[in-house]
Design brief:
- The protein is built from 27 helices and six strands.
- It is mainly α.
- A four-stranded mixed β-sheet has the order 1-5-6-4, with helices on one face.
- It starts with 12 loop residues before the first strand and ends with a helix.
- The structure holds zinc ion (ZN).
- Zinc ion binds next to strand 1, helix 18 and helix 20.
Length: about 625
C-alpha cells in the first residue's frame, strides 16, 4: 500500500527546535502553576497502567474481523468502530506516557517502551483493514453509507483515503516485489548522511583575527553571520567549494534518489514523482506549480527586501554571503511567563471571544509546561492526541521574545486541536501536515502585529519588523527556490534526460541568480553558490516536502490580511480550518477558510503585507536618520 494518513497512526505533533542550554532547576523546585496537569488524563500512573493492560487484552479481538469487512455495513462499521475506540484510548495513554517521559528523559522511559510495543501490536492486528477495504467496490461502499449513516459520518474520509488509491495499487504479487525494494530505498540518503556528517573533510580557514578554524557545521553557521565581511565571504566560499570538490559523486547520488522516486511513481501509474508524492495528502500538483509561478511573479518584492538589506548593512553591493548577517541588532526584550500570557491574550483577541476564553482556560487549567528543568526535553511541542481531554504544550521558557512567539506558535496548534477535537468525531479530528502550520503562523502574525502596535521604541519596532521580514524572505522565497530545484531535477529524469552533478550546479545556479536578482545587481550570487544544493540534506531525506514551509506561511499571512481587511466574516471563515480537523481534504479546508490555494490571491496578500512591513521600516529609518 502507498503510505497514507490513516486512523491507526500518528496524530500531528508540531515540534519546534529552539536552542537548548544546561538546566540547573529540578522539577520539584518549580511552582505547580508552571507545570502541566497530567492528572486530567489519568489521576495516577496506576490508572494509566490499567488502560494499557485493557488495551493489551482487547487489541487481539480486532483479528476476529479478518475477512469480514465487506460482508455488510454493520460488519464494516463494527470493525472500524472497535479499531477507532482502541486507537483513541491508545492515544490517550500515549500522550500521558510521552508527556511524563519528556518531563525527565533520564527517567520515565520504560512507560514509552510499553506504548511502542502496543502500537506495533495494533498495527499488526489491523494490517488487513486497508487491503480488504480497497477490494470493496465503490458502489458497495456507497450502498453501505446509505444503509448506515454512522459509517459515513465517522469513517468516510478514512475509507476514501484508501479507496482513492485503487488505481495506484498493484496486484498482490507486484506489491510484494515493489515492497522488497524498500530494503535499498533509503540508500542515497544514508550515503549522504555518512558523507555529510562523518567523512567529508572540513575545510580550514584563517579568519581576520589570525585564528584558524575548521568549518564544522556549527562553526560555519557561526561565521557565515560574522560581522567582518571578509570572514563571512571566506567561510561561505570555502564551505561550498569543499562540497564542489565532490560534485560528481554527490550528483550521482542525488540523481539516484531522483530516479528511485520516478521508478516508484511510474510503477504506481503516476504521471510524475510530484503527483505521487502530493497524492499522499490528496493535493493536486497545481498547488505546487501555483506556488512556484506566483513566487516568481513576485520576485520584485524579494529584490526590494534585498535592496533594503543592502541599505541597512551600509553596503554598495550586496552578496549572497551577506545574507546571514542580522538585519537589525537584537533588542533586549524580557518577558516573564505571566507577561507572555497577557500579551497573547491581547494579541489573539482578533480571533474572537471564544478563542480567548479557551486560551485563558489553557492557562488556568495548566495545559502548558513552561520551565526548563534538569532532564526535560528541549524545544517545544503541542500534542492534541488526548481527544477526550485537552491538548498539551511543552515549552522551555527563557524570558525572551522567542519564548513568547514560540508559545504563540504552539498555542496555534493547541487551539486547532481543541476546536477540531470538539467538533469532529475522533476519526476525523486529526489534521493534515499541509494545514497544520497555518494555525501556528496565523498566531505568529497576530503577535507580530500586536508587538509593533505596542512597542516602546522605534528600535523595538525595527527589530520586530526586521525579524519578520527575514522570516518571510527565507521561508517563502528561499524554500520555494529549493522547491523549484527539486521539481526541475525530477522533470529532467522523467523526460529521460541525463542528470549529473554539473547539470545540478547549472540548474541550481540559474534558479538562485534569478530569485536574487543577480543580473540587476540586487544581490550578487558568486559562482561557488552553484554547489549549495549539495549542502541541503532535505533533497535526499524528503520527497517534495520543503514547499509546505512556504505554503503554510503564505496561507497564514494571507488569512490575517483578510481578517484585517474584512473583520468578522474572515475570522468566522478561518474557523472552518480550526474546527475542520481532517473532515475534508486540505485544499477544500483552505478554500472554506476564504482563500483559494490555486489562485494568485494568497501570495498577493502576503506580498502586500511584506511590502507594508518594508514601508514601515523605511519610514522609521528615515525618522531616525539612517
Ligand atoms: Zn508548528
Amino acid at each position: 500500500m502507498n503510505k497514507i494518513k490513516i486512523l491507526f497512526i500518528l496524530v500531528f505533533v508540531c515540534i519546534t527546535l529552539i536552542p537548548s542550554f544546561s538546566q540547573t532547576f529540578e522539577r520539584k523546585d518549580i511552582p505547580e502553576k508552571y507545570k502541566w496537569n497530567l492528572a486530567d488524563i489519568y489521576p495516577t500512573v496506576d490508572a494509566w497502567q490499567a488502560d494499557v493492560d485493557m488495551l493489551n487484552a482487547n487489541v487481539e479481538m480486532l483479528a476476529e474481523f479478518n475477512g469480514k469487512l465487506s460482508e455488510s455495513a454493520d460488519a464494516l462499521y463494527k470493525a472500524l468502530k472497535t479499531g477507532n475506540d482502541l486507537t483513541k484510548t491508545l492515544w490517550r495513554a500515549w500522550v500521558y506516557a510521552g508527556n511524563l517521559s519528556n518531563e525527565n528523559l533520564n527517567e520515565n522511559q520504560a512507560i514509552m517502551q510499553q506504548m511502542r510495543t502496543l502500537e506495533t501490536k495494533l498495527g499488526e492486528v489491523t494490517a488487513f483493514f486497508e487491503p480488504e477495504i480497497l477490494k470493496i467496490p465503490k458502489e458497495k461502499i456507497d450502498q453501505f453509507f446509505n444503509e448506515k449513516p454512522e459509517l459515513k459520518n465517522d469513517f468516510d474520509m478514512y475509507i476514501d483515503n484508501i479507496q482513492r488509491l485503487r488505481e495506484h495499487t498493484l496486484t498482490e504479487a507486484e506489491e510484494k516485489i515493489l515492497a522488497s525494494f524498500g530494503l535499498i530505498a533509503g540508500n542515497q540518503n544514508e550515503v549522504y548522511s555518512i558523507f555529510n556528517n562523518a567523512e567529508k573533510p572540513f575545510p580550514k580557514v584563517t579568519l581576520s583575527t589570525g585564528e584558524e578554524v575548521e568549518l564544522t557545521s556549527s562553526v560555519y553557521t557561526k561565521y557565515r553571520a560574522a560581522e567582518n565581511r571578509e570572514d563571512r565571504e571566506k567561510v561561505m566560499k570555502a564551505l561550498f567549494e569543499s562540497y564542489g570538490d565532490f560534485k560528481n559523486m554527490l550528483g550521482a547520488n542525488l540523481s539516484g534518489k531522483v530516479k528511485k522516486d520516478w521508478v516508484y511513481a511510474k510503477n504506481r501509474k503516476y504521471k510524475s514523482s510530484l503527483e505521487a508524492s502530493l497524492n499522499s495528502d490528496n493535493l493536486p500538483t497545481e498547488i505546487y506549480s501555483t506556488l512556484i509561478e506566483q513566487v516568481n511573479n513576485n520576485l520584485p518584492t524579494l529584490h526590494r527586501a534585498l535592496d533594503l538589506k543592502k541599505r541597512m548593512l551600509g553596503l554598495d553591493e550586496l552578496h549572497y554571503y551577506d545574507l546571514y548577517v542580522p538585519l537589525v541588532e537584537k533588542v533586549d526584550m524580557s518577558f516573564t511567563v505571566e507577561e507572555g500570557q497577557n500579551i497573547l491574550l491581547n494579541a489573539l483577541k482578533p480571533l474572537g471571544e471564544e478563542y480567548v476564553t479557551v486560551l485563558q482556560k489553557a492557562y488556568d487549567d495548566r495545559w502548558i509546561d513552561y520551565m526548563p528543568t534538569v532532564g526535560k526535553r528541549s524545544g517545544a511541542y503541542s500534542n492534541g492526541g488526548a481527544y477526550d481531554v485537552h491538548p498539551y504544550i511543552l515549552m522551555n521558557w527563557t524570558d525572551d521574545f522567542l519564548s513568547v512567539s514560540t508559545l504563540a506558535h504552539e498555542l496555534g496548534h493547541t487551539m486547532h486541536s481543541y476546536f477540531s477535537n470538539k467538533t469532529q468525531p475522533f476519526a476525523k479530528a486529526d489534521y493534515a501536515t499541509f494545514v497544520a502550520e497555518i494555525a501556528s503562523t496565523v498566531n505568529e502574525n497576530l503577535l507580530n502585529d500586536y508587538m509593533v502596535k505596542n512597542a516602546k521604541s522605534d528600535e523595538e519596532v525595527l527589530y520586530i519588523l526586521g525579524s519578520y521580514l527575514e522570516l518571510l524572505r527565507t521561508t517563502i522565497f528561499r524554500q520555494t527556490s529549493f522547491a523549484e530545484f527539486e521539481w526541475e531535477i525530477h522533470k529532467k529524469v522523467e523526460a529521460g534526460e541525463p542528470l549529473t552533478g554539473d547539470d545540478m550546479c547549472a540548474i541550481y545556479y540559474d534558479i538562485v541568480k534569478r530569485y536574487y536578482g543577480h543580473e540587476d545587481g540586487h544581490c550578487i550570487v558568486d559562482d561557488y553558490i552553484q554547489y549549495e544544493w549539495s549542502y541541503i540534506p532535505h533533497f535526499l531525506g524528503y520527497n517534495y516536502y520543503v514547499f509546505q514551509y512556504a505554503t503554510s506561511l503564505i496561507y497564514g499571512t494571507a488569512l490575517v490580511e483578510k481578517m484585517n481587511e474584512q473583520g468578522q466574516p474572515a475570522v468566522d471563515a478561518y474557523y472552518n480550518i480550526l474546527k475542520g480537523g481532517g473532515s475534508k481534504y486540505s485544499p477544500e479546508l483552505i478554500k472554506d477558510a476564504g482563500i483559494d490555494p490555486m489562485s494568485p490571491e494568497p501570495v498577493a496578500l502576503t506580498m502586500q503585507k511584506m511590502n507594508r512591513v518594508m514601508d514601515q521600516m523605511e519610514e522609521i529609518l528615515k525618522k531616525i536618520g539612517k
